[in-house]
Design a protein that fits this description.
661 residues; Alkaline Phosphatase, subunit A; 2 domains
Amino acid sequence: MPPVIDRLAAALLAAIASFALMAALTSEAAASQSDSAILVLIPQKRVAAPAYDEKIARDLSRINDLSIGLVSATQGSYVAAQALLDISQGTRVSRSTYDPKDVPPVRLLPTSGGSARIRGWQAILDRADTAPQTIEPGLLAGSIPGGAGYVASGIKPGDMAIPATDRKGNIASVRSTGSLDLANTALAQAEKHGLVVVSVSAGRNGLRELRQLTRGRQPGQLVIAMQAPPEAAIIPLLPIGVAGLADQPSGLTSDSTNLPNLVAGIDIGPTVLDHLGLETPDDMLGRPMRANGERQPEELTPFRDRLDELGPRRIPALAAVAAGWLIILLVAGAIRGAAETRMRVRRIGGLAILWIPSVILIPAALGNPSREVEYLVIAGSALGLGWLSDRFLPWPKAPLIPAIVGLSVITIDLALGSHLITRSVLGPNPGYGSRFYGIGNELKSGLMVLLLAGLAAGLTGRPKSRRSALTVLGFGLLLCVILGSGQLGAGVGAAIIVATATAVTAIMMLPGGLTRKRIAILLVSPVFGLAFLAVLDALTAGGQGHYSNSVLSLDSFDSFWEIVRRRSTLAWQQLWRDSMPVITLICLLAAAYAIRNRRMFHPWAGPIWPAALIGGLVGGLIGSVSEDSGPMLIVVATITLAGLCSYLLGRDRAPDNSENR
């Protein structure tokens, strides 16, 4: 073949290859551009409106393309700027652990080329460094090649642009436009940036803009629309809707909450990155959202209203039980005389306290009853069941009934998704943003004492023996499974509490005195509890359970130390909150009084009772230093132990000799 023809053929082949390469690159670029996410923030029309805007929730439910639910804005005390920061960093801690506590003011400053920066961002970074764990403000936008864009209808406060800000305080593109052009501007920006944060108008214009966005959404685009965090002094759950997660709109959930119709604000970042095919940084602790279950817009507001009621009802509900106990004492004394009735009333009231973990589930099953109805149901049910327990089983066997019933119904509810516990006055309360399912700190130490009360009732009169000690350890292991497993209670700290409490009780049930070997066993019991929980998590959740993700996934001692520092910081803060110092001191003095005057319980109905009481007290003390709720654990343990002591002091006569071995 002539050289000229050879050169022409080579040139032709090169041109064909170039065109093919350009076509492939264009196709790949088009595909990558279509994979984008738009985060829509919908402000309230009225500044003085309630934090949760029902109108926005209704508007989102009317857009049929959206999977809908509620989003937990922050953890602990709430401010709007912190909620926006949590979205940008994909993780959160209580605002009280920062120094300063309040978020520094920020301002949006346009720069050349249509970009912008946030004035005051360095103060945001300095504040994040004071938190008791790794916090990376701007991690979401900083993880997206090319950064994020921000589009606003008119002039907006600077903090609304925080989710689009990268680690250096920069925003790749900022556009301010009129209401009619906002949707088209946002969609055009989504062709250039993987994430675009859009602050729409308030009221009807905002709904129209959102509808235009969802109608113009391309197949590879994700649209997340939520009520913009409002300026409010409460902890809100806000309405949220997502288009692009599934073919059929449904409800929303995530592995952060494990609850239908509920996700966390820190889940937004991982959801965006997962949609873009980008790796989620280790410092993001949120989890991608999932479209799951039926779309139930009518359930959102009642669910939110119920969670909003739980915190204010906790102390009055317990006070109602005490008030009912006092009324029974006064009425019985007025009718039959104090001498004849005080022992029985002591037993009834003490048993009523042991029934509280069971009866708090009744109002939760009723939906959201009024405060008066809830208090009446809890107090009436606890005292009524206390009376029935005392009537059907002789002293000191009656605690066996509330222990069996309480631990059984709670286990069943945990297995079914912890729907009732979550909605109960002593549940984890997802509204606070720190725990969404399983057993909350308010119940951990109480259930531990309840188990020991049931064991003491069942082992009454038995002498010290290895068999009794193994029985205690066996049931303690079972409770560790119930409270600690990621499939049930998901309470990692509960394994430490229960393991320690049952180890103390079991050692006290062994014949002989305290030896070095037994002291060593006692010291390693919390470690054994955690090790057992790790094995259980690996077997039941494939290493992807709550414990594996939160503890075993730690890649360094610094990460472990962050958890310890965060928990100890929060526990210390809880100790000095409101009246907690006085309450904690009263509980410790009550425990010291009972130990110093322990002869008032003599004659004991077997060695199991002092062992159970001491084990419960030690478990509460351990919980108060290992859980972020701090003194709440010893307070709950002391209240439950006080109920048990009241029952023990209510005996009508000394037990026979067979029970005194």
